[in-house]
Design goal:
OB fold (Dihydrolipoamide Acetyltransferase, E2P); globular; 11 strands; alpha+beta; 6-stranded antiparallel beta sheet
Amino acid sequence: MTVILVLLTFATFLLIDHFYSERKVVVQPALSAAKREPQVRPVPSLVGGFKVPENLRYHPGHTWALNEGPSLVRVGLDDFASKLMGKVERIQLPQRGQWIRQGQKIATIYRDGAAVDMVSPIEGSVADVNDTLASDPKLARKDPYGEGWLITVQSPDAKTNFRNLLGGAMARWWTEESAGRLQRKMPVLAGAMAQDGGVAMDNLTDQIPDQEWATIAKEFFLS
């Protein structure tokens, strides 16, 4: 029921966002084959203790998308997800060439016997996966908008997909809402949620039992 209410709230604000926006997607210059590192380094906004770069578009399940060319999209998880995820054993990524759908499973996070899926912000064919992240999952927590990216996707309908995502003020609002909801659900985290305007702790859920963590993570990741 909570997830349904959250999705209804998101849908309402998304409609408002579409009404007032010009529905333009910012397209970043395509990367050359020799340079595969993500170029997502603008100074991010700090919202509720979490970093929110302005040049990305966000799925309400806390994954992001960056358009790097006419149909190439880089995908990762946002700062809220990386901190809620905490220390995990491994991250399972899809296979190259696999077709993924917007809002459906893109990766699985494993933590001490508990498994939680992340959903995709974009639809298309997986062009590349971050093999470094697969062998070193802490990158997703240390640098979710850079070295901790998940996959790249060839998305033939990227423009339409991006219209279903959050950006600008809506992305900041969604992050603020998520931070407040997490604190209300887990008051014990209040000291880690940067009430003084600072950055939230890297591992918010370190003291939460794994099965309880899985339940919370699935709610916020919409999985």
